[in-house]
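Quick entry between incubations.
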Amino acid sequence: MQQSDSQLLEQFLKPDADQHKIFKLIVLKYQEKVYWHLRRMLLIHADTDDVMQDTFIKVWKALPDFRMESSLYTWIYRIATNEALSFIKRKNRMHILSNEGSMDYISESFSSDVYFDGDDFQTKFQLALLQLPDKQKLVFNMKYFDEMKYEDMSVILDTSVGALKASYHHAVKKIEAIVREN
Amino acid sequence: MESNPFRLPPDYFDTFSDKVNSGIEAESVPLHKRIRRIAKPIIILAAAMLVLLFIIQQTVNVLKIDTNNKPLSEEQTLILNLELWDISEEMLIEELYAENQDKVGREDLIEYLVDENIELSDIIKHL
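Done. Structure below.
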């Protein structure tokens, strides 16, 4: 039976704890959820794998100071989100420097990713999502795919519930228009 | 949209936690040790190159002509530049006579060389 977050954290913080063993349980508990959240942001498996590792290494370093002010999952999700946004910013900057005139690393790399099996509509849908600003795309993904509550999203993104609702509404309208256009 | 168009490598999640653990262990190596691990082969290579340069420099120093010695005379230079079989006794006798013709005659010179049993090599040495 899977242990609760507070149980895991309590065990982790014990002086004689086998921290690596307990941390492994945390990773096993959340790796899939975090993976798919990142994958929908980054689209490409190799990039997702890199950011996943960075995320959990950061979680390991910060876990001794985590005080359960939010749920463990929300906290991990927030770290993953920030890592993904930083990654996208870095890649876009490098991509612009090495490819004059080209703006978006993910758009250009996504089409050649071997781990995407989508049909024509799904490809258009993902490319439409890429046209949203990063934070708006995040809101859309969290609501549409992760079915997250606005209150939890508010903690993760440090944005008011009202702003998130508006952002989601606009995202939906924009995607509909792009997909219809194509 | 129900189906997930994204795939991932098989057994990815089975091995992911081990990957994270390796990453954590790599980061736990102190920075100076990580630097040393990377720098060690570079330092060894640099040291080897310095030793090689030192050996080359020392070899060049040994082979250099000693410019502190007295410069060679014209005769010595002439002899050094000649192959041994280019030098004939007659040539040397002519040289000796040319230098000393106001002091001694040619015949006297030859008689002297024969009586004293002076060889070609002795003349070269003397010059």
